[in-house]
Amino acid sequence: MEIPDWSSMKLPSRPELFDFEGVSMVHYFTDNWEKVKNFQARPDDILIATYPKAGKSTAWNFTGKQPSILCNDAPERQTSQPIYMRVPFLESCFKVIASGTELADNLTTSPRLIKTHLPVQLVPKSFWEQNSRIVYVARNGKDNAVSYFHFDRMNMGEPEPGDWNTFLQKFIEGKKVFGPWYDHVSGWWEKKQTYSNLLYMFYEDLVEDTGREVERLCSFLGLSTSVEEREKITKGVQFDAMKQNKMTNYSTIPVMDFKISPFMRKGKVGDWKNHFTVAQNEQFDEVYKQKMKNTTVKFRTEI
């Protein structure tokens, strides 16, 4: 499938948020819903799931960086073909390119790497029925909110974010695309307790010790890798390396205005301290305690 020519594309108006199956959504992720819902997963598929701006780029670079050990993906494709074509975004339907389901169905690599932001209850049933492997990456809510804010500022495919305070209130209230952060991270955590083919990873762990997390992932995927191969993967998923790769950083897509903010901004743990006021931090902590009181998942807001 050829890389789309974006030269004549007009920037769209920002979409409106609406309720879909009990989750806040925009039409880009529901327009193709029948095909998403009925998508046929395969036993060897690897689904990479995250809440928006929680570390998906790191996760898919983990799984797709070394073709020799995983998906038989030609090395030149990693620098010549955009990530959205190599790792289809399952629920996406942006019209100017093939839908996520079509891109996934047309993948020639095996296993297929597919990404999603769907909360666990909206994931197509076939992934569970086929016992597909799933890697979920969670990020602490404060850093996730900051990253999501800057993403919304530069992405015309997202609703208008407003200023930081306006955005944070919406985030705390769960009025963001793909629903509340609290429900997303805890829902996937609960699924892990009953679905053994799910690896739940934390963004903070990936930043703290990338090599250790590479080993965890390789073990989960049943990969036998040499020290040299693991070192290559670790080097390839370093944030600065990914940020500079035009096939990974989304700089080829015109709906994203890189003059406002890059798609991959800092990749740090604790950047929330540069954004939250004392009052905002106290409010977030209070809501967090209430919303997360019934789950055992634990997050670190600094390392």
Brief account:
With 303 residues, the chain is of the alpha/beta class. Helix content is 38%, strand content 9%. The protein starts with 17 loop residues before the first strand and ends in a 12-residue tail after the last helix.
Fold topology:
Layout: E1 18-20, E2 23-25, H1 33-37, E3 46-50, H2 56-64, H3 77-80, H4 83-86, H5 100-105, E4 113-116, H6 125-129, E5 133-138, H7 141-154, H8 164-173, H9 181-192, E6 198-202, H10 203-208, H11 210-220, H12 227-236, H13 239-244, H14 278-291
Parallel strand pairs: 3-4, 3-5, 5-6
Antiparallel strand pairs: 1-2
Helix pairs in contact: 11-12
Number of helices: 14
* Rg result: 18 Å
Provide the helix percentage: 25-40%
What is the SS-derived class? alpha/beta
Share of residues in strands = 5-15%
Biggest sheet character: 4 strands, parallel
Helix and strand pattern: EEHEHHHHEHEHHHEHHHHH
- Give the overall form: globular
- Gap between N and C termini, in Å? 42 Å
Unreliable spans: 64-69, 71-78, 245-251
The averaged pLDDT comes out at 84
Strand order of the largest sheet: 4-3-5-6
Total strands: the figure is: 6
